[in-house]
Specification:
With 249 residues, this protein is α/β, with parallel strands linked by helices. 42% of the residues lie in helices and 17% in strands. It folds into two domains: 156 residues, no CATH class; 66 residues, no CATH class. A five-stranded mixed sheet has the order 5-4-3-7-8. Strands 2-1-6-9 form a four-stranded parallel sheet. Helix 7 runs antiparallel to helix 11, helix 9 crosses helix 10 and helix 10 packs antiparallel against helix 11. The chain is globular, with a radius of gyration of 19 Å. The two termini are 18 Å apart. Bound molecules: iron/sulfur cluster. The site of iron/sulfur cluster (SF4) has 12 residues, from helix 3. The site of iron/sulfur cluster has 12 residues, from helix 3.
Amino acid sequence: MSEFKENAGVTKLTVGVSSCLLGEAVRYDGGHKANSHIMGTLAEYFEFRSFCPEIDIGLGVPRAPIRLTRKQSHDIRCIAIDDAATDYTGALGNCADGQRSWHQNLCGYIFKQGSPSCGMAGVKVWGELAPGLDGIGVYAGKTMQNFPGLPCEEECSLGDNVRRENFIKRVLAMGRWHELHERGFSIQRLWDFHNCHLDILMRHDRDGCEQLETLLTKTTGDLLLENAGIYLIQFMAVLKARQAGEILR
Ligand code: SF4
């Protein structure tokens, strides 16, 4: 947990998390999925903002389970298992949009793997043939679409030391990005931010780091805000890239 040392003594950064991962009994069956890595180590350093989209849209506990289903049009919808006519896709997407005011202040998000609402990728999609694993939870997908620079992981990744450390790096960097945003963007401040992360960027992806510098070089005053947004997305992608010598299992 070497990355934490640089953050010692600083106000805890806020990370969104699927409520069931914090031991809250919000799952369809009245259970939870408490995760020891999140509730133990990470809770010492991050402030968690728990949220369950299925509760937010008015589904109770217990409730009939929902799942992703591929329609004949190949459109993927999130529907109730016991009533195919009850479609929650729009409600869950709108739910994500409705959380923008606090999502925009987050430094990261930890989603529940495999959930038709919260899964980031590889969610089971039911159809006429055998289920596929190419779905994205509706709430998680919309949240990532709204904030493409936000560091996101599923809880299963955080059991792996390399992936957990990588997520932490990105969360800490996002905290510094928020500080920059609060002070106000300028071309010089973007370069300062970049240079402050130069070593780690070069270690992760030298080409990606140079592309970031090209972007900053081309940035003029009228492109400042637009390019700052592009920079953040590319910066996080570089930081997430596998570092030489790392073993991602
Ligand atoms: S995975 Fe998401 S929707 Fe399902 S219980 Fe957990 S927080 Fe709620």
